[in-house]
Every structure is written in structure tokens, then in C-alpha cells.
Amino acid sequence: MLKLNELDKYCEGNRLEAKKAEGGLPNSIWETYSSFANTNGGVILLGVEELSDKSLKIAGLENPDRLIADFWNTVNNTKKVNINILTDKRVRVERVAGKSVIVIDIPRADRNFKPIYLNDNPFTGTYRRNGEGDYRCSKEMVSAMIRDNGVKTQDMLVLDKMLLDVFDYDSLRRYRNRMKVTRPGHVWEVLEDVEFLQKLGAVGIGEDGKRYPTAAGLLMFGFENEILREYPYYFLDYQEHFDPDIRFTDRITSSSGEWSGNLNDFFFKAYNKLIQNPKIKTPFKMADGLTRIDDTPVHKALREALANCLINADFYGERGLVIRNNLDGIIFENPGNFRVSIDEALSGGVSSPRNSVIMKMFSLLDIGERLGSGIPLIQRVCEEQGWAEPVFTEKIEKDRIILTIGLYCV
Fold first, then answer.
1. What is the Cα 360 distance to its own chain's centre?
2. C-beta of residue 401 within 8 angstroms of C-beta of residue 393
């Protein structure tokens, strides 16, 4: 919690903005309101001055009640701000050293409310926070927020301009064989492929009553060239760096033309490469003296990390998905940002997948956690191994999530 009596310890940054406000509400306050709401929240201090050395000093306000009244009048004016996400307790006056300061505590907006924008135009009035400044979002960033604010997830879209020949049925066969192992005797096992795809959510019914691929089905089982028709920036990239003298000791890309290029096949190709990292130990064990057990918590954590990367990717985003397998660590990077705050994601129990149908498809293979426990599992496994704590980074300016798992002891 911000302590105003220790203001000399703070400076402006991603979640703190100071404004002297000696002439009334500064116009820039609304850009900061938008940027904090669209990023990770933050606090605006009115009556606080930023000095030339970046330190903060309380200047005080002569008539804070009038400024608060002006603030509420404007934040509730939908022609200026599209949504007011504040409650009364988030705007208050505090007295410090005999001077009045207004504290405006802006939360991170729920994805269903984003974008928070100004002047009745989301494409010119949406801002995000980066360091000490507010910057106007690009059209692509705003479009990504709009895609995320619906009740339905992106991958539920029925693609009624495509036919069922977009699917690689050999890839589907591999999926069904794996499902037979994880779900023996499942009631869908006897279904024909198209009926199975419909039950899975890979095929939907269009407005004309006919069957079409869904976005999830296209991504999971489609041919790469067909996927590119809907997702022009789609690109999956596994990179292996085990020798410093060689740029790539191995590489798998969706555009190679040597395989389907879809998510289903990429997951297993990339996972089978990840576990070849020399730092990943596979102990030799036998169950009942007959069946070899070579699965460990580390293997499960890697499956969770890889599945989360695919499940939470925004495939409409301009930059592709990249997995880097290095001797000292593994990096998972996907387009899109967190749909909940990083703190909520790390604490577990909160699940807001960008692609819920794809998550269901993986869960039928016992891959991916439904209750938001995947990230805590990864953290726990790293702790048990004595490895560095996994690092989650959200690059707001590029709309990317990066997970780094260090394969070294600390």
C-alpha cells in the first residue's frame, strides 16, 4: 500500500502517476485513467509534484472537494470516458503534513470492459501504460482487446466460409488414438470423424444449418495453408539451442511443409524435443515389475507450460508463437497478454483461457489444468527441483506473454 508520509521513497512508474493539479484537473489525467485501466491498474496522486530529479514532493491542493466533484462528473460522462470502473472508496482525500492530496486508485479493468477509451472512439482514445508514460494503442492492440471482451472465446467462432476439407484427418486420427489411451471406452470412440469433431467443438453449425469448421478445429486439426486463410500471422516455432557454435541444433516450424503445421501435431513434436534437454532427467522405474514409468512431475510441468502457451495464444496477433529450448532454460512465448492480472494467474484457482475449446481438446488427453492450477504446478516443480523460480513476463507494448523456466539450481 502506498504510504504518502514516505513519498520520498517513490517515483513515477508503471503503476504510479503524480500530477500537481494546481490549475484544476489536468487533461492528461484521462489518458492515465485509460492506460492504468487497460494495463495493470495504478494510483494517480493529485497535489503531488515530480521534481527534476524524478523524486516526488507534496504540493497540496486548495480545494480538493471541487476537484473530486469535477472528476466524478467527467468520469461518468460517456462522451469523455466510455466506462467508469471506479467505486467511491477508490477516490479519496488524504492529509499529509497539513496538506491535502487526492488519491485515485484505478484497478485493472476486467477483460469484459476493455478497452477503456476516451472521446467516444476506441481506435484513437485507448491508452496503455509503459514505464512512466501513457501511450496510445495501435489499431491492432485495440482489436485484440475487443476480441477478448466477449462471453465466447475466440476459438468458438464458426468459420462458415470454409469446408470440412480444411482438416488433416491423419492428424485427427493421431489425436483419436491418444484419446483412446487416456479415455478408454469413451462414448465418442465409436463416432465417425465428423460427428466426433462436432462433439469436440471442432465443427459447428452455421446460420444455414450446415456444418463448418470452428476456429478451434481449424487451429487444432487444420492444414497450415488453410489456417493462414483465417490467421495470416499464424506461425509456430520450436528452436533448440544446445551448441553455441550452431544457430539451431534443431528447429520445427509450422511453415516447413513437412507436416500439417497445426497445434495438435506441434504440441507433440515440440514436447518430445523438450524432454530431450540434458537437464531433464527420466528415471527408470517399473510399475508392478512390468510397465515402465518414465513420467515425472517435471514432464507434467513441461506439458502444462506448453499447453498453456497454445491455449492462451492470440493467433490473430502479429507475432507468432516461439519455444526456445536452451541448455540452461526453456522459454515459452506466445502472442496475447494475460486475460487476468499476473497476480491472479500466479495464485491459481482463476482460469480465463483465450481458447477454451482448445483447452477442452487438450484436457481430453489429460493435458492442461482446468482450474487455473497449471502455473502453481510449474512453480512447485521448479521449487522441488531446486531450480530458479519461473518468471512470467507480460510485454504490454507487444502483446506477448513469456514464461522462462531456468534449468539450473539456485
1. 17
2. yes
